[in-house]
Design brief:
- There is one protein chain.
- The chain is an alpha+beta fold.
- It has 4 domains: about 325 residues, ATPase, nucleotide binding domain (Nucleotidyltransferase, domain 5, 2-Layer Sandwich), CATH 3.30.420; about 80 residues, Actin, Chain A, domain 4; about 130 residues, Substrate Binding Domain Of DNAk, Chain A, domain 1 (Sandwich), CATH 2.60.34.10; about 200 residues, Substrate Binding Domain Of Dnak, Chain:A, Domain 2, CATH 1.20.1270.10.
- Helices cover about 40% and strands about 20% of the residues.
- The chain is built from 25 helices and 32 strands.
- β22 and β23 form a beta hairpin.
- It is extended and about 120 Å long.
- The two termini are about 35 Å apart.
- GO terms for molecular function: ATP binding; ATP-dependent protein folding chaperone.
């Protein structure tokens, strides 16, 4: 048989097998819980899972599909998610909420909210009075974006748990790379509402790059290879320049592959949704021109929902066909709609959109400093890259073939689940270092009093555009002697984004930090031998792209003589150095990167420039400089005095400026609302399950009583009782019982089972008994055959092979005879009993007899395995007359040594578990059910 025939010769099956093999090789399970990833797109969500012993895979939803619509609907107290919500949304569009991800972290006045209202005018959107965010109003109920996203994540969690059979609490979430601090924090809050711990927020292009790289590890070397990943999804378009390279880790000395983002360009509003909306509006205009009704189709939400659905179908069909009919039955006022649409007409509608297709690639290349001629490939992913016009424009722009060797829908999700396995504690994966890039520069702004007494604001960039992260930064304030505050903002966005993109980002102010007890700490440490080196603020940009202030500390240098330094002071100085976050270098902006590599050249040039400016302005240390605290310069000049670094924490209060976080009473209220919805849904599921079980049992019981196989096992009274209960329950279900609760249905089912189970039990006994008796007979035959051979292994039968005693042989023989006699009697007695009478010979009785016989045979088999033949000592050879006494003694010793060697080898020769043979050479072979092995694998029936 050829190998490819095992899979039906299908390339897809072979690719799937290869994928599973590669993932299994990359990931080694350890003891731990399952984890998941969620690619929460604007239109679809995909869930990746990995659990101990199972390769990474996509979790299926309840329809056994690999992706689920990110849609949620509410109607008459019911909550629907996914395809059910989409179906309801055509009839009641105002109750069905979709395309929610892009509203995360947005205030009501954001341009993206205005665009959303324009695309979906039938939604009732109001402002959260406290947080100024978007709230959907549905009758008397209101839902925030975080609440709706949290419910989608809960559904994803449920699908993942059903797929793995384990509880899941940790995840990696895929986000658009252009998400700012507000959007990322809002998504983390939604995950928290869904009872999920976010291991990382990973950018979509980074996840795709990781997925692309883990399958091609052997293709990378010390020379960087460059790829462009182009994504056009439902809502947005991004292009990213990514490099792959083998780099030696300075700490572990391992050579590891590194995937690094070098440049990113994006268009937040260019995607399949905008094309679908334009096609929807075109179909609506054409319907109005037909004049089939006086009602404007744009004023009817249900008609607009139907047009939107048909526009989506038509857009997909036109990707493969040059023309197709749009058809909607009963679009408005019971009037049907049918219109032929060509691909040329569709492309004309989106002409201005197609003109924006190449801009993200150009922007990404510009930021990376690379050109297309050194890029290996331009790789497509995202559902809307399948549009022929998109591929045509891209191919003409890059002047090379497009790579389509990625799963456009699942690449990001699979890359994210690999990252989840890497971050979780229960798995070991082959390391693949990931370095992302900062899209929006972040700066610190603080006030400085000039010579004239006026306060001027100083700006220092912490994280520049395209700087790699995660990383840490330290900034030093060495001019402030009293309490002060500073702000953290987005910086120089005009050089990175267009005016419209800046407006879509929302608030440019991130946080305001207020420091207290500065004067108090300084005064407490005033001394002639103590010098202040400023206040250091430590900042972190973690692997989720979230910015935070780690801590603030006052740094002091104390000059002490070597002789005066006490043992306690020496110990304190050592501990201070061990736990210090100071890099110990004089830099304008100190960088502490986990990747242990230097900052980008652009950032270093910028920092050097600022350092020169500060030195020219102040003549001493710059306001933004960090000062070494080890006193090495003084130490080189003279051994005494010695400089000791002292650090004291400065209290700080951080106020978020871009969006009020979902916390406190608001968070608790949202949590209670979601819990109430979950309780209602669980109650509904329990009721439906109980009702279905009751109805199924009633129908099943009635059908079985009409079959001879079951009716023969019931007495007339029992059959009448079952039929009576079934009839009563059926009437009750169609009258008063239609609105009963789950507990009532479960109670009715228990009552019916109590009446019917006796009959079902008898039927089971009669059905299973023949198979059990057949197994007993085979065991008896095997035991009897073993007994015949075992008689040759007694002292009476073969003195040299006395494995068993006569008592053991007699015992086995007696058990076999008793079992045969018992089986014969019980079978005959059972035949005299009618099928509807109590059973005499049960399956349990038969298995008990089998267990007794098995125990006796197993005892003898194990004894045979352990038995070793006795070795008779070989007599010493006769000493010849001409042999000296010494030679005779030496020969005797050699013989004895040879004997000992043979005796020691005997157990080794038996490791193959060869059964000792009888005199005629025939081996003793126990029956299959008692066949010995190195490990006792016998299973008692």
């Amino acid at each position: 048989m050829k190998r490819h025939n095992w899979f039906g010769g299908g390339s897809a099956a072979c690719l799937l097998l290869a994928t599973v093999v590669v993932f299994a090789a990359l990931l080694t399970p350890s003891d731990g819980a399952a984890v998941m990833s969620v690619d929460l797109g604007s239109e679809w969500m995909k869930i990746g899972v990995v659990s101990p012993g199972v390769p990474m895979e996509i979790a299926l939803n309840k329809e056994s599909k690999r992706k689920t619509p990110t849609t949620i609907a509410f109607r008459n107290g019911d909550r629907l998610i996914g395809e059910d919500a989409q179906t309801l949304g055509v009839r009641f569009p105002a109750n069905n909420f979709g395309y929610l991800v892009d509203l995360l972290g947005k205030t009501i006045d954001n341009p993206m909210v205005d665009l959303y209202r324009k695309r979906f005018p039938y939604y009732d959107i109001v402002e959260d009075p406290t947080r100024k965010t978007v709230v959907f109003r549905n009758g008397d109920e209101q839902y925030t974006i975080e609440e709706l996203i949290a419910q989608l994540l809960q559904v994803a969690k449920g699908y993942a748990e059903e797929s793995t059979g384990q509880s899941i609490t940790e995840c990696v979430l895929v986000v658009p790379g252009f998400f700012g601090q507000a959007e990322r924090q809002a998504l983390v809050s939604a995950a928290r509402l869904a009872n999920l711990k976010v291991l990382q927020l990973i950018n979509d292009y980074t996840a795709v790059g990781l997925n692309y790289g883990i399958f091609r590890r052997k293709e990378f070397n010390e020379t960087a290879q460059y790829f462009v990943f182009y994504d056009m999804g439902a809502y947005k378009t991004t292009a990213s320049v990514i490099s792959y390279q083998l780099v030696k880790d300075k700490a572990t000395k391992e050579i590891l592959p590194v995937v690094q983002v070098l440049g990113v360009g994006y268009d937040r509003t260019l995607g399949g949704l905008e094309m679908q909306v334009r096609l929807r509006d075109y179909l609506g205009q054409q319907f109005n021109k037909m004049g089939k009704t006086k009602t404007d189709v744009f004023t009817n939400p249900r008609a607009m929902a139907k047009l939107f659905k048909e526009a989506g179908r038509l857009k997909n069909v036109l990707s493969a066909n040059t023309e197709h009919y749009a058809q909607i039955e009963g679009l408005l006022d019971e009037q049907d709609f049918r219109l032929l649409v060509t691909r040329d007409q569709f492309e004309e509608l989106c002409k201005d959109l197609f003109a924006r297709i190449t801009a993200p690639i150009d922007r990404a290349l510009s930021l990376s400093g690379l050109t297309l001629d050194i890029v290996n490939q331009v790789v497509l992913f995202g559902g809307n890259t399948r549009v022929p016009k998109v591929q045509e424009i891209l191919k003409a722009h890059i002047k090379q073939e497009l790579a389509k060797n990625l799963n456009a829908d699942e690449a990001a999700c699979m890359g994210a689940v690999y990252r989840a396995a890497d971050l979780a504690t229960g798995f070991k994966v082959k390391k693949f270092v990931v370095k992302d890039a900062v899209l929006y520069p972040i700066q610190v702004v603080f006030g400085r009093e000039g010579e004239s007494g006026n306060t001027r604001f100083v700006r220092r960039t912490l994280f520049g555009a395209m700087n790699s992260y995660p990383q840490k930064k330290v900034i030093t304030f060495n001019k402030h002697t009293d309490d002060f505050e500073f702000t953290v903002d987005y910086a120089d966005l005009e050089s990175v984004l267009s005016k419209d993109e800046i407006a879509n980002l929302g608030s440019l102010n991130l946080t305001k930090v207020s420091l207290t007890e500065v004067a108090k700490k300084l005064n407490a440490n005033k001394a002639d031998n103590v010098e202040s080196k400023g206040i250091k603020a430590h900042f972190v940009l973690d692997d989720s792209g979230l910015f935070s202030l780690a801590n603030v500390e006052l740094v002091l240098e104390k000059t002490v003589k070597e002789d005066d330094e006490s043992t306690l002071q020496k110990l304190g100085n050592t501990i201070s150095k061990l736990f210090s976050g100071d890099s110990g270098e004089d830099k304008p902006t100190s960088t502490e990167e986990p990747s242990k590599e230097d900052s980008s050249k652009e950032e270093q040039k910028e920092d050097d420039k600022k350092s020169d400016e500060d030195k020219s302005n102040n003549g001493t240390n710059a306001e933004n400089s960090t000062v070494s605290g080890d006193g090495e310069g003084a130490k080189n000049k003279t051994e005494k005095p010695k400089i000791v670094t002292i650090k004291e924490e400065i209290p700080s209060r951080v106020e978020v400026l871009y969006l009020s976080p979902l916390d406190g009473p608001q968070y608790e209220a949202s949590l209670s609302k979601i819990k109430a919805l979950n309780d209602v849904e669980e109650s509904k599921k329990r009721r439906e399950t109980a009702l279905n079980a009751l109805e199924s049992f009633v129908i099943d019981a009635q059908v079985k009583l009409d079959e001879e196989e079951y009716s023969s096992c019931a007495t007339q009274e029992e059959a009448d009782a079952i039929r009576k209960h079934c009839s009563e329950i059926s009437e009750w279900l169609y009258e008063d019982g239609s609105d009963a609760d789950a507990e009532t249905y479960e109670k009715k089912l228990d009552e019916l089972r109590t009446v019917a189970n006796e009959v079902y039990a008898r039927h089971w006994e009669h059905k299973e008994r023949p198979e059990a008796l057949s197994a007993l007979k085979k065991m008896i035959e095997g035991a009897d055959g073993f007994l015949d051979k075992a008689r040759n292994f007694t002292k009476e039968g073969n003195p040299e092979k006395d494995v068993f005693t006569q008592v053991e042989i007699d015992t086995l023989e007696r058990v076999i005879k008793e079992t045969i006699e018992w089986e014969k009697v019980e079978v005959q007695e059972q035949k005299k009993i009618a099928r509807n009478e109590p059973v005499r010979l049960t399956v349990k009785d038969i298995t008990d007899k089998m267990a007794l016989l098995d125990r006796e045979v197993k005892y003898l088999v194990n004894k045979l395995k352990l038995w070793r033949p006795k070795v008779k000592p070989t007599p010493p050879p006769k000493v010849e007359k001409n042999t000296s006494k010494e030679e005779a003694e030496q020969n005797t010793e050699e013989v004895v040594a040879e004997e000992e060697q043979v005796i020691e080898e005997t157990p080794n020769q038996s490791k193959g578990e060869a059964t000792p043979s009888s005199e005629d050479g025939e081996e003793i072979k126990p029956s299959k059910t008692e066949e010995p092995s190195d490990e006792d694998q016998h299973t008692e029936l």
